[in-house]
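Predict structure. Chain length: 206.
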Amino acid sequence: MEGKELVSAWLNSVAQVSLKTFTPIESFQDLPAKVKGNSSLWSERFFSNLANPQKQQDKVQHGIHVATESTPDLILYQYRVKDLELTVVESINFTLVFVGGMALFNMLERSRAEAIDQAAQMILNLKDDEHEWVFQFPEKLEDNAMFSTNPETDPFAMYSWTHRADGGIHRRVLYFLLFKKLPDKVGYQNTQTWFDPDFRAKWRRP
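Prediction complete.
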């Protein structure tokens, strides 16, 4: 599958940041205006109306992580959509959605793909006027499995976010990974410069 290295690098960069080390913030409105605009734009593109973190009626827990030498600037959203517990970790380049509340490994393996498709239909914007995503699964959906809607397309070189979405199982938890790729930009941005200097100085951990 093309792009495994990029997906793994982003997944590992997030895995380095324990959820306990995110700094809680009161609400989405505490973020810098430029970050709020970016996050809102991509949430509209990536999520179903039901699962969009900006449209939740119930309380969403928010947090931030200020970049270090080896980790990116990150926003954390934690909330519930029906029976699913969603942990969304967003950077300037990608959005990662970890799906709790699914007992994937209690299912027969042939049932896992169907369960993942059902979760994707609930959480993601799988089809609109610009795109249609259908995940292609490997033969075995075991821990550390990875899958994609377009595994032959290089996510680094692709023209638009519409061309590919990914997913997998990491530490026995289902995740989806969405690429913030715009047609007018080559490659991706520096993951450690999403927050402005004033915000960074205010919220950096000692």
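Summary: Strands lie at 23-25, 61-65, 74-81, 84-90, 94-100, 146-148, 165-170, 173-179.
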